[in-house]
Amino acid sequence: MTKRIILDCDPGHDDAVAILLALGAPAEIEMAGLTVVGGNVRLDGTVLNARKVVTLAGAKDVSIYAGCPRPMLREMVTAEHVHGETGLDSGSGQPLADPTTPLSKTHAVNFIIDTVRAEPANSITLVAIGPLTNVAVAFAMAPDIIDRLEDLVIMGGAGFEPGNITPAAEFNIYVDPHAARAVFESGVRLTMFGLDVTHQMLITPDRLKAFAEKGGRVGVVVADLLDFFNQYDIGKYGWDGAPLHDPCTIAYLINPGLFKWRDMHVVVDTTEGPSLGRTVTDWFGATDQTPNTRVVTSGDADAFFKLITDRISQL
Q1: pTM attached to this predicted model
Q2: What CATH architecture is 3-312?
Q3: What gap in Å lies between CA 21 and CA 302, rounded to an integer?
Q4: Is the separation of the CB atoms in 189 and 293 below 8 Å?
Q5: Distance CA 249, CA 261 (A)
Q6: CB burial string 126-145: b at 16+ within 10 A, e below
Q7: Residue 93: alpha-carbon gap to chain centroid
Q8: Which of 49, 105, 200, 264 has the fewest Cβ atoms within 10 angstroms?
Q9: What is the residue extent of each domain of the chain?
Q10: Alpha carbons 67 and 98: distance in angstroms, whole number
């Protein structure tokens, strides 16, 4: 059954692969629209990158909407130290081609609200793989859409894993913890892909080589992008490759059997200090709080990378 999605993103290398995976899976994923938020780089950069990735995919009918340029309450934090100055720097230094995909005039938040209201209830899945600012603002402006979503699938947070931007916090949650807290407390059906699972999805040399050799024309470009993306995390963690975070959300919608999860209660810490942005997950039911989140805990990394390689090869 095809999932109709709105993909909210902040490209970013792993966002780019998530977009390509979604566009390479037309039997399972129908893209209602691509909404963009400031995150890995500032909004003008993430919007440009989204347009470039859609152009790379050769998708002619994907609409792109610019959203919130900064967090709700805090100053902007970006990640050029990971993604490079453009947010999509490549190993070869060759930039993606200039985009031909236009930018829509409608604000991303308005697009989310209007689309969810216009479609039948439980027919739209919102996938958020950047800071949750657009989502929180949409929920605040139009709380009626919360129960109309089939699911909200996010990349963000961590349970047992330490953070990747601070010792406590994962980047997407940390950038706008107040938005994240509002979303987690909204009552929406929520599935969370945090660092516990994404840190299992490493871009090893063999997987990087497979993108270049088996991923078709787009795979060659993806391999070049991920060659750059690998460098920071290999140096920081000493791993065999960087974790490919964001595409986990799309792979889950294509084939949920790749992953395992458990339902638990999750709270976002918005206290200023060293724990700001931490997702506090009640793994063992230590409280009497009703679970509010499906927390994905593990996945089949080999099958995950094969799925991505196969689908982008068809673009």
Answers
A1: 0.98
A2: Alpha-Beta Complex (3.90)
A3: 16
A4: no
A5: 13
A6: bbbbbbbbbbbbbbeebeeb
A7: 24
A8: 105
A9: 3-312
A10: 21
Per-residue model confidence (pLDDT) at position 247? 98
Partners of 126 in beta bridges? 6, 152
- Out of 10, 151, 269, 282, which one is annotated catalytic? 10
pLDDT tens-digit map of 173-222: 999 999 999 999 999 999 999 999 999 999 999 999 999 999 999 999 99
- DSSP E strands: which ranges in 198-299? 259-264, 266-268, 279-281, 293-299
Residue 158 · residue 279 · CB < 8 Å: yes
Yes or no: say if 18 and 9 are a contact pair by the CB < 8 Å rule.
yes
Instruction: Concatenate the DSSP letters of all residues of 127-195 into one string.
Output: EE-S-SHHHHHHHHH-GGGTTTEEEEEEE---SSSPPSSSSS--HHHHHSHHHHHHHHTTT--EEEE-H
Q: Exposed, middle or buried by CB within 10 Å (0-12, 13-18, 19+), for 286?
A: exposed
The C-alpha angle with vertex 181 and arms to 81 and 70, in degrees rounded to 5, equals: 45
Copy the structure tokens of residue 178.
Answer: 């107040």
Query: Closest Cα partner for 281 from 121, 104, 158, 97?
Result: 158
HSE value, Cβ hemisphere, 13 Å, CA-based, for 43: 20
